């Protein structure tokens, strides 16, 4: 049975990219909409172009010198925006990190809803959510990588937000796992935690999979097989 997005079960990366509800080329509109209360620049085309420059430069600088060592002055120089222009979008590095965390948390919350149809077999819902998460992390790898690597250097309040996003994802996966097979809360929590760690390994340690020439589809299929075996479902 086709899924609500028009996909077939065990869909491929190419198929997902064609119907992705949050395509990368519209990402800046979503960032702007979710942070409009804090962004003083109201000319939308200008704001979208500058948001793209800010985030792309931030990810590059974070990889080069680390987010903790990066300064807003570094970001101003990398983007070509004056400090005053930069303050039209964010007041601090924590504000920048908060935008990244918010977007990834939003996406993590949306993914299970894309496949939340009662007519679908529980394993199909779980498998589709996991595949979509892997594929979104492939499309938005710098964002996911940033959340994983840089959350440890954030202020305490912002670290709580990062942890909450991780807990939310695990809770959603645990619910779907219990729908596939009846089990205790702790067992479902642990399996969800293991699955999350496997997905994180994909977008954090890209070099390892690149060396073995493992594609994102091969990785997703392996994850599907592992889940089915663990839950003893054919």
TrEMBL record:
Keywords attached to this Swiss-Prot or TrEMBL record, sorted alphabetically, are: DNA-binding
Q: Record keywords: DNA-binding included?
A: yes
What the entry lists under InterPro entries is as follows: Homeodomain-like_sf, HTH_TetR
What are this entry's molecular-function GO terms? DNA binding
Task: Please report the stretch or stretches of sequence annotated as the HTH tetR-type domain.
Answer: 48-108
What Pfam families does its record include? Answer: TetR_N
According to UniProt, the name of this protein is HTH tetR-type domain-containing protein
């Amino acid at each position: 049975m086709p899924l609500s997005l028009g996909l077939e079960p065990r869909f491929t990366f190419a198929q997902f990219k064609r119907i992705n509800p949050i395509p990368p080329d519209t990402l800046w509109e979503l960032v702007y909409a979710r942070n409009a209360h804090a962004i003083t620049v109201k000319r939308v085309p200008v704001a979208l172009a500058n948001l793209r420059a800010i985030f792309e430069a931030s990810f590059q600088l974070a990889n080069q010198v680390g987010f903790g060592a990066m300064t807003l002055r570094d970001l101003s120089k990398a983007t070509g925006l004056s400090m005053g222009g930069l303050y039209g979008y964010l007041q601090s590095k924590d504000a920048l990190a908060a935008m990244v965390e918010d977007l990834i948390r939003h996406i993590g919350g949306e993914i299970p809803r894309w496949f939340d149809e009662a007519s679908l077999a529980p394993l199909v819902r779980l498998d589709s959510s996991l595949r979509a998460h892997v594929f979104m992390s492939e499309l938005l790898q710098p964002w996911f990588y940033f959340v994983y690597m840089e959350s440890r250097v954030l202020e305490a309040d912002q670290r709580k937000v990062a942890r909450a996003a991780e807990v939310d994802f695990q809770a959603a996966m645990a619910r779907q796992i219990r729908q596939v097979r009846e089990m205790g809360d702790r067992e479902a929590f642990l399996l969800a935690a293991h699955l999350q760690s496997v997905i994180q390994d994909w977008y954090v340690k890209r070099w390892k999979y690149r060396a073995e020439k493992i594609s994102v589809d091969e990785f997703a299929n392996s994850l599907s097989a592992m889940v089915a075996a663990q839950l003893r479902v054919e």
